[in-house]
Every structure is written in structure tokens, then in C-alpha cells.
Amino acid sequence: MSDRLIDLIEEGIDATVRIGMSSDSRLIIHHLATARYITCASPQYLAQYGTPTIPTELLQHRCVNFIYPQTGREPKWKFEQDGKAIDLCVESYLRFDNSEVILEAVIQGAGVVQFPKFIAAKAIARGDLQPILQSYATQVGLPISVLYPQKRYLCAKVRVFVEFMTELMAALKRVDIVD
């Protein structure tokens, strides 16, 4: 598993799961679901620094952000109020190019994060993370897709992988983790 953007054809990789858009015309894109985003922090962080009640209060909090390895940019945090989109550029206290590292840092009390709900779901269920600003949650999300090189015939292992990922995403949809 890696958050690094790979070139499937150049690196000889059979298939990948990607969150976000792809414009590589050499690849087949099989849409699986849409990643729903959630804003959360550890209970310890919230006890120490307080719980934001509106998105702009995040500007006074320690925010942990993902940095895209290919561009060096950080995403804007997205919220919605009364049907209107709110894009917020938060000041990053910490930033990483790996979702698992971000998850662990936030569980340990490093700050507030906004990332796909499927990454945080188990930590939320355990009580390690607490969702915040849920009344401002946006319906905007990024596509989750399986990508694989265009070939005349789909090999069995890629077909089985696509079927497995389709079933996995269907299960995540049933428990309200992805759309």
C-alpha cells in the first residue's frame, strides 16, 4: 500500500485502487464508490484544545494535512452550510504524504484531520477518534476506482481483484462508509 502515484504500465503493475481523478487514456477506470470525507480528532486533543463548532474555528487549531507527493500541495478542507460549499485553507501543524501516518498522528493527539471516512472508521468505532463539525459535512467526495492497463483480454487475476473490490465497496456502502 502506498499513497504514491504510480505509473501502472511503466512499473508493470496489474491494477491499482486510486482515490481521485485519472486522465491516463492508457488505463481502464472501473468506478467503485465515492469517498466521503470526515473531520475528526482524538478525544485527548479535543479535551486539551476544545472542539470547534464552526469550520473557521479550525484556523485556530492544529490541523494535520495530507500533502500530495506529485504536487507538494495540500487539499482545501471542504464543508457545506445551507447548501453552499465552504472551502477552507487550513494552516497545517503537521503534513504527511501517507494516510496511515496521518491516522496514527491524529490518534496520538497531534491535531484535527479531514480525510476519507473509510480511513478513520475503525478508529472512530474504537473511540480513538471523534467526528467533529458533522453538521457541516459535505456531500462532495472523490471517486474510488480500480485502474488497470487496457488489454484485449482481461486476465483472471485482475478480473477477480475488480470483483473483490466491487464487493468490498458494496459492503462499505451498506454501513455508510462510502457513497
Main sheet makeup:
5 strands, mixed
Low-confidence stretches: none
Over all CA atoms, what is the radius of gyration?
18 Å
Please give the count of helices: 5
Please, what is the oligomeric state? single chain
Kindly state the mean pLDDT as a whole number? 88
Q: What does it look like?
A:
With 179 residues, the protein is of the alpha+beta class. It is built from five helices and ten strands; from the N terminus they run αβββαββββαβαββα. The chain has helices spanning 8-11, 43-49, 99-107, 117-126, 156-174, and strands at 16-19, 27-35, 37-41, 63-66, 77-81, 84-88, 92-96, 112-116, 130-132, 142-149. The model has no long low-confidence stretch (mean pLDDT 88).
Question: Top keywords for this entry?
Answer:
5-stranded mixed sheet, 30% strand, 27% helix, 179 residues, 3-stranded antiparallel sheet, alpha+beta, single chain
Short description:
The chain contains 5 helices and 10 strands; from the N terminus they run αβββαββββαβαββα. The protein has about 180 residues and is an alpha+beta fold. The protein is elongated, with a radius of gyration of 18 Å.
Give the helix/strand layout.
Layout lengths: L7 H4 L4 E4 L7 E9 L1 E5 L1 H7 L13 E4 L10 E5 L2 E5 L3 E5 L2 H9 L4 E5 H10 L3 E3 L9 E8 L6 H19 L5
Parallel strand pairs: 4-7, 4-8
Antiparallel strand pairs: 1-10, 2-10, 3-8, 3-9, 5-6
